[in-house]
Amino acid sequence: MTSVDPDIFPGLSKSRYCAGLQCHKLLHIRSHNPELIPEPDPHTQFIFDQGTETGELATEEFRDGVTIPAFPIDEAIEQTKKALEEGAKHIFEAAFNYENIHVKVDILVNHGNDHVDIIEVKSSSGVKDIHIDDMAIQRYVLEGNGFVVGKTSLMHLSPYYVHPRGHLFIISNETAAVDDRMQGIPDNLKAQRMMLQLAEPPEVGIGPHCTKPYDCALRSMCWEHIPEMSIFNIPRFSKKWEYYEQGIIELDQLPDSIKGTPTQKPFLDAYRSGKTIIDKVGLESMLAELEDPIYFMDFETLQLAVPKHNGTKPWQQITIQWSVHILRDGGVIHHEFIHDSEEDPRKPFIDSLLGVLGDTGSIVVYSSFEKSRLNDIAKAFPEYKNRIDKVNARLWDMLVVFRKFYCDARFKGSNSIKAVLPVMVPSLSYKDLEVQEGGAAMVEYARMIGLPEGEERENIKHDLLEYCKLDTLAMVEIYRKLLSY
Predict the structure, then answer these.
(1) Does residue 2 register a pLDDT over 60?
(2) Cα 170 → chain centroid
(3) How far apart are CA 196 and CA 13, in angstroms?
(4) What gap in Å lies between CA 296 and CA 306, rounded to an integer?
(5) Taking phi first (over 0 means left), then psi (-120 to 50 degrees means alpha), and beta for anything else, what does residue 99 get?
(6) Cα–Cα distance, 286 to 284 (Å, whole number)
(7) Phi, psi (5° rounding) for residue 401?
(8) Which helix (H) or strand (E) holds 39?
(9) What are phi and psi of 382, to 5 degrees?
(10) In a 3-state reduction of DSSP, which class is residue 263?
(11) Which label site among 29, 125, 323, 434 has the fewest CB atoms less than 10 Å from its CB?
């Protein structure tokens, strides 16, 4: 196996190589100043952990496999070499080095005589462009070690799998796509290695690469010069990068001739006038649709890469919690539910929810999310379909108000409830809660159901209930504010 001078060829790995394809500044800091890279937030770490679980399950498809310990790297490379010499058919986390590029192959298929196949495992439900780059650099390193690589495949979760029947994984032969991507590797490596020899990170401007293929961990650092209100707040503004390159960042720098599309114009008008733009006729007409009593409803869900409950798919949104505030005769009553075990939550969820929604009155939601989840339950449990259809017929989407009839520039171009609430009802705030957004709620829920009975479990449960409760209370107070116009 090749050994080169690390001073000439700075060390790379497949993840660093792919990071360099996204942004040279990101690669430089990952390589030379990794302490500047923020730790992943709990939700991102949760997704990573889902990927680890997926990878472990994938190896069970090859029961004759040999697992190579991850560290130390030099020892992992030697153990891989030994496993190949001993004729192991499948090697998990096979380690190789070439030109100071270290890679680990999730599943190496050994056909003997230095003929191998590469299988990369991902927890996604399909093939992504970045996966091709990931596999291409692995193949580059293996071919540099003298191996003949036959097939290069991606093993990913099947979007057609329904637990517990069928095949959880699909193995997709991506050899042709990897062939095409191999051609660019030498130039990519040359550019990355030259850059890595710089004493300081290169100056890389912000751009679409900040979120593709992943949200960059350095985004907060690189976007410090962007003001809180900028051209990036304009809804669906496809020309934002074109204007940014011209030095136009602040909204006041936009020419007055730019009026915006029908989606953008209310935001621009609201910003330029300093006033809230309200279509009072449309707002009054929509509010008039509401029938007493009024229910304000919100759901929380859990997404698992590997499904646990019968009839569920990879990454399916599983309803685990609801909150309902009922506005009747000027008074407000609150009901709530959270499923606190590892058993399938969907039937207890829907049984408890239907028990408080009654047969009449409008049900206020914020987006189509709740309707989609109710339809999922109706499909899984047809005995609930008629009752769920009646609930769906009563839904009233508050988000439509802010998309069509009400615009305040202080929402910063977003219509989410977390953007609307602090402007319309500043007395309510998610910042006072232990759990402040849906991703964190999912992580805490997964942690809670894995804990034994005790204070920590009850504290998490309380925090989750308070979070979901604020979502529906927020809708109540926003509704009351809307009535004043």
Answers:
(1) no
(2) 22
(3) 13
(4) 32
(5) left
(6) 5
(7) -55, -45
(8) none
(9) -55, -20
(10) coil
(11) 434
Q: Is the dihedral of CA 200, 202, 204, 210 positive or negative?
A: negative
Domains of the chain: 12-196 (3.90.320.10), 226-274 (no CATH), 276-485 (3.30.420)
Q: Which amino acid is at 479?
A: Y
- 3 state DSSP class of 208: helix
Question: Coil, strand, or helix at residue 197?
Answer: coil
Q: Cite the beta strand spans of 68-168 per DSSP E.
A: 90-98, 101-112, 115-122, 148-157
The pLDDT mean for the chain works out to 95
Task: Report the distance separating Cα 233 and Cα 249, nearest Å.
Answer: 10
Residue given tokens 């030099």 in the structure block: 74
Instruction: Determine the Cα–Cα distance for residues 291 and 456; give it in Å rounded to an integer.
Output: 41
3-state secondary structure of 129: helix
Our separate counts of H helices and E strands in the chain read: 18, 14
Q: Are 292 and 271 in contact (CB under 8 A)?
A: no
The total number of residues written for the chain in this structure? 485
Q: How many CB atoms lie within 10 A of CB 355?
A: 10
Which residue's entry shows tokens 């472990």? Answer: 56
End-to-end CA, the chain: 74
| Residue 120 backbone phi and psi in degrees, to 5 | -95, 135
Comparing CA positions, the residue from 144, 124, 151 lying closest to residue 12 is 144
Which pLDDT score is estimated for 8?
57
Q: What does the pLDDT look like over 346-383, one tens digit per residue?
A: 999 999 999 999 999 999 999 999 999 999 999 999 99
DSSP bridge pairs for 148 = 115
